[in-house]
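does this look right to u?? FE2/S2 (inorganic) cluster version
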Amino acid sequence: MKEFTYVLPRSLPEAEAAAKKPGATLKAAGIDLVDRMKERQFQPTEVVNLLLLQPDLGGITADADGSMRIGALATLAQIAASKDFAAEGYAALREAAGEAATPQVRNRATAAGNVLQQARCWYLRSSELHCLHGKDGPSCLAQVGDNRYHSVLGYHDCVRVHPSNLAPALLALDCEYTTQLAGKQQRRRVADLFPLEPKAQLEEHTLLPGEIVIAFHVKAQPKSARSAYRESREKLSFDWATTAAAARVVMDGGVIQEASLVLAAVAPVPLPRPDAAKLLIGQKPSDELFHRVALRAFADARPLSHNAYKVQVGQAIVREVLHATTR
Amino acid sequence: MTEDRSTGSAFSRRAFLKGASAAAVTGAAATAATHARGPVELETFAPGTHAIALQVNGKEQKLAVESRTTLLDALRDRLDLTGAKKGCDRGACGGCTVIVDGVTVNSCLMLAIDAIGKPITTVEGLAQGGVDHPLVQNFAHCDAMQCGFCTPGMVMSSLQCLNQNQQPDRQTIQRAIAGNICRCGTYGRVCEAVERTAAGRGDQALRAPAHGGSK
Ligand SMILES: Cc1cc2nc3c(=O)[nH]c(=O)nc-3n(C[C@H](O)[C@H](O)[C@H](O)COP(=O)(O)OP(=O)(O)OC[C@H]3O[C@@H](n4cnc5c(N)ncnc54)[C@H](O)[C@@H]3O)c2cc1C
Ligand code: FES
Ligand code: FES
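got this back:
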């Protein structure tokens, strides 16, 4: 790791001021950041630590309108164990956080850091290889190289995958997030955090330089809402998902009234599939129905040379997550 | 992790400031003055070494680190606590597992400066006055190691499991050690060692959780 100046602000204004400096980067637990810095793939000159801002950025608390506020610094372990998310409507959050990585990683990894971690791609995360994404290389090396873990959907000129467990769950529940920049707070939908066209030349998220995520907001879920997160992976622990899906369903009298479906680990951004989810509305749950939804969710898949398996496995995961929300 | 970090850190930072060379810290005097009263403000660790204090196995340890020094390197190279192992240095093996502030962490991905003011327990903390913690005794009894490289990390995850559950079932133990890779495949015996400890076997004089197991 290259040397850097480590800045430890004690207040949001201090953090904002420090983050404005050229070459500065924000750090939560640093699990992704330290990894990239050791790799020398990312070499910030100033690292601004957010961990001492617990009073502003920590905890999981209820807001006056009944929605839940997940502080940017809340850990995956806290989310997974939170009694506030015990109801079925929030299960996707618990499951996504509780299935990620390892106990040691979940104990420190923060909500914002998890959602904003850099995409997975062994070419892009290597300091020695110059690909298209953020490195001014001539081409996306994964398109012609070993792309077994890369995108099958929604990609343009770069086939990296968005690896966050939490992001699809937040999207399935149509959550919001608050940021602070230049003393002003803004609240937007989590869907706005990701670019619509995730091109190689673009940032992986839509935050402006120095913009600090304060919290995520989860709407109060009705009793009839159920949500779930399911993923496939090669190992039972330690592993990032090869495909993942989060879903939320509201039923009435055995008929599906509302539905959302989000895929992850198959595209450069977590990918909502509203057209597939629409097939569920007004229907009674059945495997035949879920099969059609799964086909639709991957209808525009364009697998690469080594990852065609992701289409079939991803479809199975979609069926599984829909069964989990309607059982 | 909702306790007031500012008080805990303020204390250790005073200790840190005492040992620090004046040039090493920006605004050290101003910071020291405010620490005593309450509102604490921004600190900066420039490139170069800084004297800090860490609370390791119940003792305050003074040491010199750089901003980029990981907790693992601080423990191994500065404090000669070589129990925690550097397997992958990337959070992908669990060999470096220690308990910080009551939870297991990969010390290879944690900056040493982030551990200031927090109780740290390493595997060395489980042998006091020449007596091993019952969990360590049971690792030996169950022969829960082969090459032993993963063992210190495995012991820390096992200890955390017992700190959180007095009578963990197999599945709970398996989940608790799911962040520790053992190339020699000792998992089954590790589970037995945890179960034996939970069942009260081994010398229970040291059964109380070690430092930092408070949460
Ligand atoms: C072995 C291993 C397995 C893993 N498996 C999984 C897995 O299965 N699923 C999964 O989802 N993840 C997995 N991870 C990744 C891990 O979850 C992330 O690295 C972690 O969540 C990052 O969180 P952090 O707090 O450490 O973020 P940091 O590393 O501190 O930050 C990550 C990024 O977010 C930015 N950032 C952080 N907080 C803020 C904020 N409040 N405002 C603005 N920007 C911010 C930082 O600038 C940085 O760019 C794995 C990691 C390891 C080591
Ligand atoms: S050395 Fe830290 S997890 Fe491998
Ligand atoms: S005993 Fe050899 S790695 Fe676990």
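The longest strand of chain B covers residues 49-56. idk if thats expected tbh
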